[in-house]
Amino acid sequence: MPRWNPWRALRASSIDLAFASLDGERGRWTRRGEHDEILLEETLDRRSRREVLAHELVHAERGVGWPLATAATMEREEERVWRIALDRLAPPEEVAAYLEARASVGPVTVDDLAEEFDLSPRAAARVARLWLVRHPPGRTSAADAVGAGEPSAGAG
Questions:
Q1: What is the predicted pLDDT for the residue at 88?
Q2: Residues 6+ apart with CB under 8 A from 67
Q3: In the structure, what pLDDT confidence band is assigned to residue 139 with cuts at 50, 70 and 90?
Q4: What's the mean pLDDT in 91-115?
Q5: Of 74, 107, 120, 139, which is least packed with CB atoms within 10 Å of its CB?
Q6: Which CA distances in Å does 83 have to 35, 68, 87, 103?
């Protein structure tokens, strides 16, 4: 079964997509009545566009956002939405299989995860942190395969 593709999901939806300068934001989802629109920062690289699109699509599915949600709700929602989006882009069972397969070769770096799952180093670092939270070292051999979960330069 092919991995979830946010571009395919967008095409299957009625959501409009546009690219614009977002003054520091990477993406924005808005709903007006029954109409959804996603704006992506026009300077994002290919992998970041894919990740931010996935994130904004999850926002649209969940329907939680400004201006109705409080700042506290949005802070929690942002983390939930990133977790859901990254689990779709790098499904936990596929991450586990990859770590198990690579464990015999040596530790897996954030760059390895980025390459395998077509993620930016920033997103791959989040996937590694999620894996380590879900599978603390010593509990499973695959967890021990993640090389300290250190992000590459510029990730965060």
A1: 97
A2: none
A3: low
A4: 93
A5: 139
A6: 25, 22, 6, 24
Give the span between the Cα atoms of 34 and 148, in whole angstroms. Answer: 45
**How would DSSP label each residue in the chain?**
-PPP-HHHHHHTS--EEEEE--TT-SEEEEEETTEEEEEEETT--HHHHHHHHHHHHHHHHHT--TTTS-HHHHHHHHHHHHHHHHHHHS-HHHHHHHHHHHHTT-PBPHHHHHHHHT--HHHHHHHHHHHHHHS-TTS-HHHHHB-TTPPPTT--
Residue type, 136: P
- φ, ψ (nearest 5 deg) of residue 28: -155, 130
